[in-house]
Amino acid sequence: MKKIILALALAGAFSAQAAEFTQVQPDKSAINFTYKQMGVAVDGKFKKFASQLNFDPAKPAAAKATFDVELASVDTGAPEGDQEVAGKPWFNTKAFPTARFVSGTVKPLGGNKYEVAGQLSIKGKTQDVIVPATFTTQGNTGVFDGSFTIRRADFSIGEGTWAKFDIVANDVVIKFRITATSK
Amino acid sequence: MNYTKTAKILHWLMAILLFGLLALGFYMQDLPLSPDKLKLYSWHKWAGVTAFLLVAFRLSWRIAHRPPALPDSMPKLMQVAAHAGHLLLYALMIAIPLSGWLMSSAKGFQTVYFGVLPIPDLLDKNKEVGDLLALVHKSLNLLFIAVLAGHIGAALKHHFIDKDDILTRMLPRH
Predict the structure, then answer these.
(1) Complex ipTM more than 0.85, yes or no
(2) How far is A120 from chain B (nearest CA, A)?
(3) Residues B97, B119: contact at Cβ < 8 Å?
(4) What CATH number does the domain containing A55 carry?
């Protein structure tokens, strides 16, 4: 009898550990960004993105994530700003409607910390990025939180009169919260 | 009786600054978005903070230094109107920069004095509140222009029609 209980407990523990988080909850997730405009920190966000996620905390090496951010869903905080960044000098959303992040290796850093190496493609340009993130679970819900900095010039975001960094800084901090449930 | 040198300097310095702020404010809002537009908005905000600091100093100076009395030749009603007009000018010189600062906060663009000194946001980002405050800021400025027109008109009337020293006592080296 004891053996059976032990076996069941082990099986239970194993299945809990083996939980794979795959169902991203868009309403509980957010992709925000912050940049500096003449010394003033300005926040914005992307309202729409699609994603594919396979993340099992027990098997981080097998983790996979792909995010496709709809660039036209940008909210810069001002309607004229939204219109401007959709245009050719910025995202050129007609030619390049989405930004894509594809994960590479996921390195566990201990505790609930991870480092996700990946490739970010915006406006036809691809760059390697390192994304530090924490992952916290509650029941069958897991939340990724993290932020990383990109340089807009690496992706030709803001060309022509905007190319200098005196008004809009080069560094853009991408901050995200991705909530996913396991099946 | 004459105004103090400090009062005169503050008056004319603010006259130049406020005319510049008004002109810039009405000019910049219709510009298409460009780096220059963002630059002008920042300058307008910095100048607005400066105007607020100046009016705060000016008010404290005025409280400590009584301005010269109005001439007895002025009817009582006109004297009351003159004091009410000045009170309204001071109220607007305080309310207008405050409304601009609150509008910036509500619109999500913090005011950072000269790009280095952040002025705290009293309001959270909120589109409806931001739009409302933009209307308040504009309306207060239209009212300010009307009161300014009265102020300048009255000063000219005193000089050319009443021929008293109301205008000249605010001029430099009088």
Answers:
(1) no
(2) 27
(3) no
(4) 2.40.128.110
